[in-house]
Design a protein that fits this description.
alpha+beta; five-stranded mixed β-sheet; 27 strands; 688 residues; 20 helices
Amino acid sequence: MLVIPPLSNPHEAICTHLSWEAVVDFNNQQFFAKAIYDVTIVSSEVPSLRLDTSDLDIQRVDINEEPVTFSLSVPDEEKTHLGSCLEIDLMGVSKSAGSKISVAILYATSPTASAAQWLPPAQTAGKEHPYVFSACFVSVLFNCVHVMKSLTYHIYVCILIYSAQCQAIHARSILPCQDCPAVKMTYDATITVPKWATAVMSALSKESIGTAEYGDRVFHFSQKVPIPSYLFALAVGDLDSRDISTRCRVWSEPSMVEAVAFEFSQVEDFLKAAEELTLPYQWTRYDILCLPPSFPYGGMENPCLTFVTPTLLAGDKSLADVVAHEAAHSWSGNLVTNETWAHFWLNEGWTIFLQRKIMTKVHGDEKFFDFDSIGGWEDLKESVALLPDKYTKLIPDLDDGDPDDAFSSVPYEKGFNLLYALERMVGADKFAPFMKAYFNEFKFSTITTEKFVAFFESYFKDVFKDVPKIKEFDWATWLHHPGMPEKPAFDRTLSEECEHLADAWISVDDGETGKGILPKHDISDWNTGLKTCFLDALISTCTDRKRPLSVATIDWMKVTYSFHESQNSEILFRFCMLAVEAEDATILPIVARFITTQGRMKFVRPLYRALYHSTMGSELAVTTFFKHKDFYHPICAKMVVSDFKSGQKKKKSFGSIVSEKLQKPLVFCSIVALSAAVGIALLRGKRM
């Protein structure tokens, strides 16, 4: 039975195909568009077609090329996330169950549409042209203690939750639609852009690229695999591309395209590994769009076009696991989709499971699976410690609340651990064919947890007598109880090696008799995961003992490992945090360069906070930020200002400098002006 969303009515009349025509207006930051839907009548008695909208200017509606009456509801003040219901009168339309009608809606978006991010030239790599991409942000009110890989920051300020596309229910701000994952549709699109611009979408680009009469460019797209509205995605900018295989291409601004092509040259290997684990790739092409440096998020799995952050450009392909995650979504989430957002773990838990299986194949080391899972377990503990109980359940009680409020690492890591528990129970040799059967059974459709459980039990019914635990498996606790699940007995071989090396350096730093000798352990062949595990262990110990490393130890680490010269953002970020805490003044130019050449909040905000709270870097933090504020995405800029304001309460020095500068107004989206929240950069873990 089809899930009934709060405003739209797909149980009575369902949209099956969209033809979208849009003109991209950078001057007014709007899409002027027409949405033409093929609608199948489910109930002959349906009085109207109801669609979800948010801040759309609806100008005209036609059914079968004849104008009809329509109305827009007033948003509920207590449920503003739902937007307005567009109700289109069907009473005068000839219809019967199973019949089809064509509904055309002429409209314009708002400049503050939550699913469209408009970047001025200053926030792009080329600094010459503006840029727009489908992305959104929302927020939830919390006062919290943010624990990031054991490094504790006490924050009582605004930290936003981010969703890097129309997910979960923001598609309604760029097109009227049945904005729920239970409704899947195909689409085609015709996009008119300025003559300097290129458009890309979550669809296949048709070969013909027309030219509008007034000199602009026209692009055509087609998505023949049904997708939910949250996977509708668009980006327009000064773009170039390179092919990296017959079905994979990278896109970015021209100055970055060669680096992007090199960094993600393994993507074809990821797809082949996923195909071995599941079934053949169904989307024809897998392209990657590397967004501008100011892009504040991590990545998103749009079909045919994954969005990624340029902070993945390490120069050595060492951060490619983020792309492995998004590639895995081509099966879990995009192909087999959670029917409602309460069952989001079926998207993300499966994707984490696939990601780790893919990267284990790529690394050629079975220990990698458990090593990466240990890091995920720590992320899960952090989320569970922060969130209210209702959001630590694998199936949260959402009702018609905002699904963004429940986004965290819980569906990712608790979902993964459920699948891992099932695999250990039945055996990896039996779970592997089950995984193939699962994706084959539910491809192109939507699924609930109840359907998953039923399919699992049906598939393994023949082994019940051999595996009695299957009958006794505690589904209720896993699915409906809050908090942490039972911890698996992970193989800690790799993580213990990292922790032992960290202990050796702590001994050096402590100057313990007979132990203060520089470790001789060579880590030149360690991957990013091992190095960040080592640095995280150092951070954790320094936090526990409430004392940073000495400057001498930091200097020895520079000579030994050259972390301060790393192009890998994950490694450089952690080492910079250690060095700033140590009051190592020589790290300041490196930190300043790092936080002004990329705008990913996962890195930028903690480093600005650390600088501001240090003795040596307070003034540098403020002056650097205000010199480069136009480079940052408005969300990022707003959050850094909030951090400064919060830090003033704890810090006497440089207070007058900050106060003076913070009095000057900055221009931000109205949505950002909220008082307190907790961020999905923490809650969604590696994605951000």
